[in-house]
Task: inverse folding
């Protein structure tokens, strides 16, 4: 059985997908890009956009009753791997203890001209 997770504190799904789905003790969070909860793209560089993406992830996690401490895996897409160092500095501020497993790669293009997109998998407390 699956449960759809939604929150108005993160941008709405812009297509036929859910913000997150809980099933089997895990919460699968769709890729977040630097959009405000109202759906407007955050201007600025990789630092500003990464902060917005991480705040979107925080909101979806909260909507599922979770925190960053519950995240076990992330997948990060960067418009250019040259942004990795700045991205990583911001990201590290959200995962200060026991960071999740992660893949990070350069993508040839991201939705809405974004510089970063992150998806995540979290473990529900009852799923331990």
Result:
């Amino acid at each position: 059985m699956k449960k759809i997770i939604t929150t108005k504190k993160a941008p709405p799904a812009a297509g036929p997908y859910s913000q997150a789905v809980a099933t089997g003790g895990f919460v699968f969070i769709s890729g977040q890009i630097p959009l405000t909860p109202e759906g407007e793209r955050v201007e600025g560089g990789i630092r500003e956009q990464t902060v917005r993406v991480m705040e979107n992830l925080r909101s979806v996690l909260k909507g599922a009753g979770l925190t960053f401490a519950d995240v076990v895996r992330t997948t990060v897409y960067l418009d250019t791997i040259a942004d990795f160092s700045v991205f990583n500095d911001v990201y590290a501020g959200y995962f200060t203890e026991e960071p999740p497993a992660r893949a990070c790669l350069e993508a040839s293009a991201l939705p809405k001209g974004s510089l970063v997109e992150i998806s995540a998998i979290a473990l529900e407390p009852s799923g331990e």
The mean pLDDT is 95. The two ends are 17 Å apart (CA to CA). The chain is about 20% helix and 30% strand.
